[in-house]
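User: Hi! I'm working on a homework problem where we have to compare a predicted structure to a textbook description. Could you give me the structure for the chain below?
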Amino acid sequence: MFIDFNKTFIIAELSCNHVQDLSIAKETIYAIKESGADAVKLQTYTPDTMTIDSKKDYFMIKQDTLWDGKTFYDLYKEAYTPWEWHYELKELTEKLDMVFFSTPSNKDSVDFLEELNIPIYKIASFEITDIPLIEYVASKQKPIILSTGIAALSDIEDAINACKRMGNNNFILLKCTSAYPAPFEEMNLKTIPNLSETFNCPVGLSDHTLGISVPIAAVALGAKLIEKHFILSKDLPSHDKEFSLEPYEFKEMVKAIREVEKALGNVCYDLNEKTKKSREFSRSLFVVKDIKEGDVFTEENIKSIRPGYGLHPKYFKDILGKRAKFNLEKGTPLFWDMIF
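Assistant: Happy to help. Predicted structure tokens:
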């Protein structure tokens, strides 16, 4: 896999947040770098690679989305990224030491992206049922990110089998909820480890919720990749601004993810040096009243107290009733050589 999964791979989705202005697109990429992302993702389509220009009711958006009232064609006409921009945006992204890749929409867009020599492909949620497109992308033998926003389990299986038929086993699944913005109660992040176990592959999250809590939780549940929309400012008239992060928010998300990665660590029961030192604050057995040679140890003259310099408290009952070998002063940690 091209992606290094020793850390979470964090993708900033540019989408239509450039509002058809190349200078804003470039400024956004600079801000993405500053925010700590690993990659910039575009969407490579035109209205005609996505749909047809029709006013028939089938082609009207009316699903209680941010885009209701438009036709698919008109929406994509307003939102697409001009293909001629890709050259400059790729050059800038790679100059800033980030990965540049895209979501193709048909065979022509795949061929175009092959000319650009992009290192990764993403299949969008709404294309996961387009098996011929997936097969064509998979035939390029590059890593494929498969988003599962509208997919039933059988759709995921079909998409994976399409990749495998082309000899491409280099894929990652993205848990996704295709609602814009996505409600928290519909995220079902517990699906992430189940997807990984079911299909024996890395799994990430394509997130359209508001805020940054869901991606952070996803990483804690094993997500290896996070994709989130990025916008310079929500004052821009973008169709995707409602579920996009501004630079300061994205930066906070990256910071929190990196902290969670450190905190997750590994399965470990060994004590490091700091922890061993901290054990001095634990309890142990101490003499709490002056004891003379031959006196019996009782619950009155020895106790389990902090700090942890004496015998383990688990020996307390074993010592009761035994006698002191010599005089013991109050405040002395108790050891076996003091007891007979």
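For your comparison, note the following. The chain has a mean pLDDT of 95. Strands lie at 9-13, 39-44, 99-104, 121-123, 144-147, 171-176, 203-207, 225-229, 284-287, 302-305. Good luck with the assignment!
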